[in-house]
Amino acid sequence: MSTLPKTIAFDFDGTLANTLPWFDEILSSVAQKYNFRDPSAEEKARLRSMEAGEILQTLQIPFWKAPAILMEFRQRMQDASPDIELFDSIPEALQQLHAKGYKMAILSSNSELNVRQILKTNVAYFDEFMCGTDLFGKPAKLGKLLEKHQLSPAECLLIGDELRDIEAAQKAKVMIGSVTWGYNSRDALQQEQPNFLFTSPMDIVKALT
User: What is the number of other CB atoms lying within 10 angstroms of the CB of residue 75?
Assistant: First the structure.
């Protein structure tokens, strides 16, 4: 690309933090508590190619119940966060991007407390935390980030692991980089033609330095 961003906004779960094994481990008990379908291992693999709305429909979760379920996961993660790790090479990639002068932000529906506990000392690389549930989701968070730091959309790159991250970036008109080690499958992400497709954390450094 001819121009590089000034600010990199990272999704957290599935992008920086390897939360999927923990999520799979507690899914059955959350499904039982909130009375939705507990998917088989085969179904879980298929869910990774679906958008959020399709996942809710497949698991028979009414839209009105989704915020309470999200809150349940966030609260349980608060207890588990000391045991949740960042993906391999993420700390090194963050350090190198920070050294190159990039401003970095976290945009996540997870709580700031959980994010900070899992990042540990890597928290120092980030200038901004926009966390928690927002009625208008990530597009609104991106809009606030652009306004607060007086950025044009072309000066911001969102990096995430899900199809909804691509959708959010398109709505906010910012660049999008998709990572292949998170929730949605590489094929599903590639079909939506993100600006960047990263297959390892160090790919991010190579593309942006």
Answer: 11
